[in-house]
Amino acid sequence: MYYERHGRVDGGAPTILLLHGLGSSATDWTEQLAGFGPWCRLLVVDLPGHHRSALPPGRLTVARMAADVERLLIELGEPPLHVAGLSLGACVGLALALKAPARARSLTLVNGFARLRPVSARGALRMLTRLALVATAPMTVVASRVACAMFPSPEQAHLRLAATRSLARTPRRTYLAAFAALAAFDARPRLADVRSPTLVVAGDHDRTVALEAKQELTQGIPGARLVVVPDSGHATPGDQPELFNRIVLEFIAAH
Asked: Which homologous superfamily is 3-116+185-253 in?
């Protein structure tokens, strides 16, 4: 599994593990490397099959991705750390906290879910359209469409470009395998088993994952807290970086 270290080098600083979304990579955390770096040690990875990490043989599942992350942490000799994930990364982080609770000092779930369900009938149609696009179109076209949906505003052109470049690196096989892993993921029966202090972050304009799914996480995980970020879509760390960084740093400082 490909990984990078950033931020402070002294051992006394808290460590944050950042887990990216579907089809993306460690390159998505530019604003967090700058915002968290002066205060924390940072570990960013490419999840299995994404960008610089190989897609393992056999069926890909969220639990398997979490096990791969845990294996990396063991190999690196990492002490318990703060886990933050976006979308797919939130699901992997949740699975990691359930599998190896001693490894997660805290858990930040950004626009994640315990079970994937479309926002609405229109959302279901968008999801089916994206799958059809992934199955038939060049990944550059898929990347452009997804990036436009995540960052629709004219002033977000630089974010669209960066997201397009990141998503276009993902092989079709990985995207389909990771989407199938998300479709099969269901952590609802085990939410009450989460022992890590948990922050659930929701973009108020997220058209990919319904607010109800994030409320379900908050209600199911003991002591979890929900923060809704205004004027934010599915990629909250990118479209509201200053507010997102402040929210996460305050949460980590409390734990």
From this structure: Alpha/Beta hydrolase fold, catalytic domain (3.40.50.1820)
